[in-house]
Design goal:
The protein has about 325 residues and is an all-alpha fold. It has 15 helices and no strands. The longest helix has about 50 residues. It comes from Litchfieldella anticariensis (strain DSM 16096 / CECT 5854 / CIP 108499 / LMG 22089 / FP35).
Length: about 325
């Protein structure tokens, strides 16, 4: 306890001395620049390794052959160039535990990022956003703005924390957006599947035809159906391909559709009839969700009415009578 008290008193003396504060700031700046140089050195070592370059080239070629390059590299050639820089940075930060690695890979797949190096790019982006903005703030802003040391440290910590959390927030946003788009396109896909299966097509051929028809209106769902078709053509069992589609999308409606199709295959019932029944159930479910949202409108409108509309109404309705009463009372001498 005495040692802690003496340490705190010594720290207060250092903070009270402007020269010591300037020296500490210079030391912190030097450590930051040193850490940046180490990070750049590791990045250059990763980029210059011929084995890693060869492996990344093979992975990119396999992703293109699998048909998922258009989704994995949304920014085209620019996105691929950024991935080549961010991949080696995040490769050393990927968790060693398979459970944690599989969890983040599954979240990236549900967001539509299925490239082999998506996990490395994710952690590389997190590292870049955690290190680079505080470094720019430390070198370009703080030296020219005279602020207390505590405020500077708080700004650096907040910037680093924001950069660390931004990739996770972006991933959650992309997952919700893709889930919403998949749910929006599923009723049209079900109707087309019913038409195709009743016309005599098998499940694989019907899904392939529906995927072609939905490329313009619902490209996300069409991409998932195309991937299912490619998996079945490559030799994967239809049941395993359906389970994989359920796992990589994470949409509740698609999970129900896959469960219904698997039960139909297991018991030998008509797939067309099964799809028609599930389409009716899904339509009823959507109707109930819309009715639920409509029933909540009156409750949600209560607060804007009370705090926004009613005060203005009272001012307009009661303002002139109150002003007239005040003038009358003033004229009577009260």
């Amino acid at each position: 306890m005495d040692a802690l008290t003496s340490l705190l008193s010594q720290l207060e003396e250092w903070l009270a001395d402007p020269e010591m504060v300037q020296l500490g700031f210079s030391a912190l700046l030097g450590l930051t620049i040193f850490a940046l140089m180490i990070a750049l050195l590791l990045l250059l070592m990763g980029l210059s390794d011929p084995l890693r370059r060869r492996l990344r080239g093979l992975e990119a070629g396999a992703a293109t052959a699998a048909g998922s390059a258009s989704v994995a590299s949304a920014g085209g050639a620019k996105g691929a160039g950024v991935s080549q820089w961010l991949g080696p940075m995040g490769e050393r930060l990927v968790p060693n535990k398979e459970e944690a690695k599989n969890r983040i890979a599954q979240r990236l797949r549900r967001a539509g990022k299925r490239s082999p190096g998506a996990v490395n790019v994710f952690y590389g982006t997190r590292l870049a956003l955690t290190v680079l903005p505080p470094l720019l703030l430390l070198t370009l802003v703080i030296p020219f703005v005279r602020l207390p040391l505590g405020v500077n440290l708080l700004m650096l910590g907040a910037t680093a924390l924001t950069g660390y959390l931004l990739p996770v927030l972006w991933l959650e946003r992309e997952t919700k957006k893709r889930t919403r788009l998949l749910r929006r396109g599923l009723p049209d896909a079900l109707d087309l599947l019913v038409v195709c299966t009743e016309a005599g097509l098998g499940l694989g051929a019907a899904i392939q035809r529906v995927a072609q028809d939905l490329e313009v209106s619902h490209p996300e769902l069409a991409d998932e159906l195309h991937l299912f078709s490619m998996q079945t053509r490559a030799g994967m069992d239809s049941k395993e391909a359906l389970r994989d589609m359920e796992e990589r999308t994470g949409v509740e409606d698609i999970r129900g559709l896959v469960t219904t199709l698997l039960q139909s295959m297991r018991f030998g019932t008509s797939i067309a009839t099964t799809l028609r029944i599930y389409a009716v159930e899904l339509r009823d479910k959507r109707t109930q969700e819309a009715e639920e949202l409509a029933a909540k409108i009156s409750t949600k409108m209560l607060f804007p009415l009370i705090f926004c509309v009613f005060p203005s109404f009272f001012v307009v309705a009661l303002g002139p009578p109150l002003l007239g009463a005040m003038r009358a009372l003033a004229g009577a001498g009260y």
